[in-house]
């Protein structure tokens, strides 16, 4: 059994997840139109906002700030609306998992922020599932490693 | 106390009409009964103090709530079979939460919500589907908030599970739209 991660480690991991999420919404957004494109832009903005907050928090805490990368490998090619929606579901569920991992290592306002992120991304994943016609719309334990 | 007082007062009123002496006597009896009533709970406390039960786990109310939410969804699915395909998976999620909460709190796997729950709307006049969904959403919203509060207050090792429960209840709000 490995030792439990520290708060700094789980926050740094959440930051790398936010980088990847922001990157993924690029190919997602171009495959969507109208209300769905708008929803993708809002989701991307939420990930940017959390990325910025994490960069500030980690650097002011004197910790290591993991760098962004020029590109990220997508789990599958995004070629049309259906694959874009499927990727959006994945992006939200994966980032939710990283914020869930922050919960045990945090207290007070920091845990509140992590919980808000987990809830927000889980809800967004459900919305994308609905748009993609995926059932069930929900999972029993959002963010829990399967 | 509650039961004895009206009886004594009733007798006082009747006897008061015939004799004031009797009235004083009855008042003394009333005072005696009042004392008895006051001391009885103290004796009860002593008994409890000597045989202290373990305090309930702080997550016990959340476990009850999971079962109530599941029961409400199942009752609504029975009343509106066309909604069942949407409601039953949500009920199963709450039951899975209850199982996990029972495990972490070391309680027996529960099967029924404790009494005093507010699960389904009262039978007799079944609510329409729209009203039913509104009622279920309201319950999920309250459930999300109580799970979030439990997550905020929990020790680290329970925080992730409680966060997932709060998030699941939040997604149910979305699924019930």
TrEMBL record, chain A:
Signal peptide start-end: none
Positions in coiled-coil regions: none
Alphabetized SUPFAM superfamilies for the sequence: Ferritin-like
Positions of the DUF4439 domain: 11-145
Cross-referenced InterPro entries: DUF4439 (IPR029447), Ferritin-like (IPR012347), Ferritin-like_SF (IPR009078)
Pfam families, A to Z: DUF4439
Protein name stated in the entry: DUF4439 domain-containing protein
Species per Swiss-Prot/TrEMBL record: Micromonospora zingiberis
């Amino acid at each position: 059994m490995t030792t439990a991660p520290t708060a700094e480690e789980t926050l740094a991991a959440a930051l790398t997840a936010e980088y990847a999420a922001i990157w993924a919404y690029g190919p997602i957004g171009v495959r969507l139109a109208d209300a769905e494109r708008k929803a993708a832009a809002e989701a991307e903005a939420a990930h940017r906002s959390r990325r910025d907050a994490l960069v500030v928090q980690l650097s002011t805490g004197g910790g290591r700030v993991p760098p962004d990368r020029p590109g990220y490998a997508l789990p599958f090619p995004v070629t049309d609306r259906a694959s874009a929606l499927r990727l959006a579901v994945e992006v939200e569920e994966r980032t939710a998992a990283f914020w869930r991992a922050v919960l045990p290592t945090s207290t007070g306002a920091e845990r509140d922020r992590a919980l808000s992120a987990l809830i927000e991304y889980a809800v967004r994943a459900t919305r994308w599932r609905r748009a993609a016609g995926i059932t069930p719309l929900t999972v029993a334990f959002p963010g829990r490693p399967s | 106390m509650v039961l004895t007082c009206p009886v004594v007062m009733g007798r006082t009123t009747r006897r008061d009409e015939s004799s004031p002496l009797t009235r004083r006597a009855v008042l003394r009896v009333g005072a005696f009964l009042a004392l008895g009533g006051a001391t009885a709970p103290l004796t009860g406390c002593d008994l409890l103090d000597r045989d202290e039960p373990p305090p309930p786990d702080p997550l016990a109310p959340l476990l009850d709530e999971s079962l109530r939410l599941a029961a409400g969804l199942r009752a609504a699915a029975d009343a509106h079979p066309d909604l069942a395909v949407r409601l039953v998976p949500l009920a199963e999620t709450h039951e899975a939460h209850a199982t996990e909460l029972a495990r972490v709190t070391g309680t027996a796997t529960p099967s029924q919500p404790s009494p005093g729950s507010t699960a389904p709307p009262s039978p007799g006049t079944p609510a329409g589907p729209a009203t039913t969904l509104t009622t279920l959403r309201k319950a999920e919203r309250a459930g999300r908030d109580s799970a979030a509060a439990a997550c905020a207050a929990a020790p680290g090792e329970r925080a992730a599970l409680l966060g997932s429960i709060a998030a699941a209840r939040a997604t149910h709000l979305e699924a019930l739209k």
